[in-house]
Amino acid sequence: MAVVRTEGLVKTYGATRALDDITLTFPDGGFFGLLGPSGSGKTTLLRAIAGFVIPDSGRVFIDDAPVENVPVEAREIGMVFQNYALFPNMTVAGNVGFGLEVRKVPAAERKRRVAEVLDLVQLGELGDRKPHELSGGQRQRVAMARAIVTRPRVLLLDEPLSALDKSLRVEMQIELKRIQREVGITTIFVTHDQEEALTLSDQIGILRDGRLVRHGPPREVYDNPRDPFTAQFLGEANLFSGTPEPGGLRLADGTLIPGAPTATIAVRAEDLRITLDEPAAPIRLRARLRQRIFAGAMGTCVLDWRGNPLKAIGRDQDFAGLPAQGDVWLSWDSADMIPLSEG
Ligand SMILES: Nc1ncnc2c1ncn2[C@@H]1O[C@H](COP(=O)(O)OP(=O)(O)OP(=O)(O)O)[C@@H](O)[C@H]1O
Questions:
Q1: Residue located nearest, by CA, to atom 28 of ligand 1
Q2: ipTM
Q3: For the segment 179-224, what is each residue's pLDDT rounded down to a tens digit?
Q4: Which end of the chain is more exposed for a tag (fewer CB within 10 A), N or C?
Q5: All domains of the chain, ordered by start, with CATH?
């Protein structure tokens, strides 16, 4: 286990600032999820920690020791990348034990440690198989086993589950979390699946254009996103901006939102209520229902308010009685307004 820390990391490629002054601590034994749109710098940050990318400036520390002079193989970092390549001609046990062989671990100990880690990823019976005789999820477990068998101080995972289909992916998320807990290893995980990041992480960090926009415990960041980017990136948020008045927030169409705390507020899609009749709620807006999307347990209503797209998420029965499209009322509780810092 180890604390990983970056200080003012900058990496540019021509005019692109892939990392723009990243200062961040990844807690000892924690599961840290890095999130951000495509091209925001997630992979570059992982590669800089691993030592594959040399930053223009700034430093990486592992347990308070700077690592710029420590080569990749000596950083004691385990890695699982998106396209983890297993050696096709080696058995599962051979693949997992390879790193130990390179480190000249004696055969008997090697065998014991490979068996131990295969048990941990629940592949104890499959050590003699070749990679092509495994399912995608099993291959992913082998890649995990291979990354942790050398007992690294840090585990870096770059979209390790993205090749798996949805149901296997969810199963593997639970597995991954269990394995990480059992081994207790400091883990930094890159994903662009926000649900995955929220499920797995003790802490999340959100990157945008190479900058760290926010970090903290998932619930804290979700409940109090602070800025419009984070509010819309994490979950589905509807933004409303207007002019603050003593009585509330005056929107462009003249509607007054009583109790709005700031000039820009967000309302989560799950907190919007839709009714055909005018509600008694103090906060209410006239909007147009454009589309109702059925998606199993939860459904989505796509709405339009004065040219702004809005979204409401709910169970199908919440939307029962609504037409496929047409004029509706929107309302929400004042407690569900999230104050945001800028418009
Ligand atoms: N070797 C490179 N040469 C030139 N530009 C690069 C290189 N590696 C990354 N970049 C650029 O740096 C930026 C950050 O890339 P990075 O791969 O870190 O993003 P990401 O958040 O991991 O994206 P994705 O989610 O698509 O994998 C992008 O604009 C990318 O084009």
A1: 39
A2: 0.97
A3: 888 889 999 999 988 889 998 999 999 999 999 999 999 999 999 9
A4: C
A5: 4-229 (3.40.50.300), 232-340 (2.40.50.100)
